[in-house]
Amino acid sequence: MDAPEAVAGSVSTASGEEAPDVIAHIIIVVDSWDGLNSAFEGSSHSAFIERIKVLMREGPSVGFHFVVAGDKQLLGGQVSLLAEDKIVLRLVDNSDYGAIGMRIRDVPEHMANGRGITAAENVEVQIALIDKDATGAKEVEIIRSVGHRLAEGRDKFLPRESMPFSVEELPQKLTAASFEARLSAQGFRDQLALPFAIGGENNDIVAWNPRETPVLPIYGLTRSGKTSLLVSLTDRALPKGTR
To answer: What value, to the nearest 5°, has the Cα angle with vertex 77 and ends 74 and 83?
Structure first.
């Protein structure tokens, strides 16, 4: 049994239903392979990068596909060997185009923004740009502004679970006012739980339910926030009639 059949068989067994003939396809987009490596290189999580490489090698048979962006490190690295074709945009050193079998004298003298060359046939291509004059931080600003407009317009009333998956950065400080605003925005309605923090991939509300967890130990050094957390939980509990 090959990999797709194995996956289909496991789906049938788990759900009790007949598995579909076509497996689902998942596209994983990695922006800045170099940054990802720098973040995990030499750390206790360095195995994460190796797992991604394994998934790149073995994942296509079960529907996993990758689009990876990076600089010279990506072009000459192990990931490049896994790809049958590549798109190389403007590089600093024209000799680097040799990695895709292109001679220096064949490299266009001027490479405009969005201009690239395919590795398979050395065909020159032009990709669509977010904005003709936008680069770097300006592109990020445009993308974020579009996301905000969609969130406040077309997608405003979509349930949270239907929104695109993201990993939000935890704020350095969280004021009581901003926490209350998050409670309201996320529609927190649990009458038994006591919300006291935000966390997780989407900075969701974190709450303590005394009925489910009768004892909640809080550890920390002096001035680490233990007393503040106790006061916060007490302030949440009193209006609910807890004594």
So the answer is: 80
